[in-house]
Design brief:
Blueprint: H1 2-18, H2 22-42, H3 53-69, H4 74-77, H5 84-106, H6 109-133, H7 136-161, E1 177-181, E2 184-187, H8 196-214, H9 220-239, H10 243-263, H11 266-295, H12 299-307, H13 310-331, E3 349-351, E4 354-359, H14 361-365, H15 367-397, H16 406-421, H17 423-428, H18 436-449, H19 452-471
Antiparallel strand pairs: 1-2, 3-4
Length: about 475
């Protein structure tokens, strides 16, 4: 059954790409990203490589698009950071060398492929995000499709939480037991996703993207409906038992609110508060009337766990985000252990520069520690420099938002806020960010923001064309 489904997905993608239809190919790739988890669950042995199916699908779409564009078009993409064009060959060379470093150390080709994919997926996503961002209709279709499938998967999380016994609703492998309090420990609900952690991230991502669409709609009813949907997604994150998903939505809301207040038009700022209050009132009434019947009595345990996140978040970031990164500087040597060394499937152990006896899961759990461990201090600093240049470019694009239609500007602000909100969570716990689907989605959102200068130029050309058509009859 799973083999047949894989063949159908592959055949559909091949047919679309042979016809040059990379746009619908990307939509199908999003579906592949969702389906790869339940397919893996139902496949004997639950092969871990299935997590990379979406990367293969998106890479194939990228190749077709590259052929159509006859080039990468980096000059337009990196208009605000031309220095980055000089960094790209260095970045590519760094990843190739670290892939070779990891392979020679571990002699595990699969591990090397996973490690290299971790660094290539964001670069691919940024480039595709820029291309998609130049076509706002396609960007909205992709996000809307993601939300549609997320609704179905959200229902599966509720089914998992409610105790429906089906192999496809259980976590991959033995699962992870979450300790709520003494005497109450359960596995978080994962639904069709492969783990509760992945489910929590996608539900929080869906909430953030729903909010982004809500304030990019000119219809009040649509805005209110999408805001309610975002609140439902946020509520479902609690069922996974993963508290950081709730914090991610809150951090996104704060960043989005700050950017919205600074760069949105005054009329839209007033509407922001009206929509929030209306949606919050409707959601509160719905929760009071139906939560007890739908979620059951034990939901209070999940609420109590969510309420305890404030006491742990700063200590966790300090321990795994800052201290682990500093420790990684000490242990990784000059060149690091190579791509894939700190992946979840890796076995990073070393002593006095050799892999002999000490497990470094603690160091590599945070994103900073993972990158330093794999690339070494030199490689990590090179990557940091490229990221700083990219952030500077995005910052320079913010004033250009006023030249775009309000709904387009609001949408892009939301996508930028979503990407920025994930940064501290990656630094504190990189596990879920090793998933190519997560990396591609995040980088695609950020890459779409790089299309702002192109969108502004497109708008000015449309205005000029309209003016020419208006005055052409006067000179005929």
């Amino acid at each position: 059954m799973t083999t047949l489904l894989l063949l159908l997905l592959a055949s559909g993608l091949v047919v679309l790409l042979l016809d040059g239809n990379w746009r619908d190919g990307l939509l199908l790739s999003v579906l592949v990203g969702f389906l790869q988890d339940p397919i893996r669950k139902l496949t004997p042995g639950q092969p871990g490589l299935y997590v990379g199916l979406v990367l293969i699908a998106v890479a194939c779409c990228g190749l077709v698009l590259l052929d159509k564009r006859r080039g990468l078009d980096l000059e337009a993409m990196l208009w605000g950071a031309p220095q980055l064009r000089r960094w790209l060959p260095l970045y590519a060379g760094l990843i190739v060398l670290q892939g070779l470093n990891g392979f020679l150390r571990f002699q595990q080709p699969v591990l090397t492929l996973i490690g290299v994919g971790f660094y290539l997926a964001p670069a691919l996503g940024l480039w595709l995000g820029f291309q998609v961002g130049c076509d706002q209709a396609l960007l909205r279709r992709l996000v809307q499709f993601y939300l549609l499938v997320s609704v179905l998967y959200g229902v599966s999380v509720w089914l998992s939480y409610s105790g429906f016994d089906a192999a496809v609703l259980k976590e991959v492998g033995p699962g992870i037991l979450i300790h709520f309090r003494r005497g109450f420990s359960v596995q978080g609900a994962s639904g069709l996703w492969r783990s509760s952690e992945v489910a929590a991230w996608h539900l929080s991502a869906a909430a953030c993207l729903a909010i982004s669409l809500a304030f990019a709609s000119e219809k009040p009813a649509t805005s209110s409906g999408l805001t309610v949907l975002a609140l439902v997604f946020t509520l479902l994150t609690l069922l996974t038992g993963r508290r950081k998903a709730l914090v991610l939505v809150v951090v996104f809301g704060l960043i989005y609110g700050l950017l919205f207040r600074r760069y949105a038009s005054p009329a839209w700022r007033d509407r922001l508060f009206t929509t929030i209050f209306a949606a919050a009132g409707l959601s509160s009434a719905t929760y009071i009337l139906f939560a007890g019947q739908v979620l059951g009595n034990q939901f209070s345990e999940y609420l109590n766990r969510a309420n305890s996140v404030g006491g742990d978040i700063l200590s966790r970031f300090n321990e795994l985000g800052i201290n682990a990164s500093l420790k990684a500087f000490e242990l990784s040597g000059l060149i690091g252990f190579g791509a894939g060394a700190a992946s979840q499937t890796g076995v990073l152990q070393f002593g006095q520069g050799q892999i002999v006896g000490k497990h470094l899961g603690y160091v590599a759990e945070g994103g900073g520690g993972k990158i330093i461990t794999e690339l070494g201090p030199v490689g990590a600093l090179m990557l940091l420099a490229a990221i700083v240049l990219l952030i500077q470019a995005m910052r320079s694009y913010l004033p250009l938002l006023r030249y775009l239609p309000a709904k387009t500007a609001n949408f892009l602000i939301g996508l930028l806020a979503f990407g920025l909100a994930n940064t501290p969570f990656f630094l504190a716990a990189s596990g879920v960010y090793g998933d190519p689907f997560v990396l591609l989605l995040l980088s695609l959102c950020l890459g779409s923001f790089l299309a702002i200068p192109v969108l502004v130029a497109q708008g000015r050309r449309r205005v000029a064309s309209a003016e020419l058509q208006r005055f052409a009859p006067l000179h005929s």
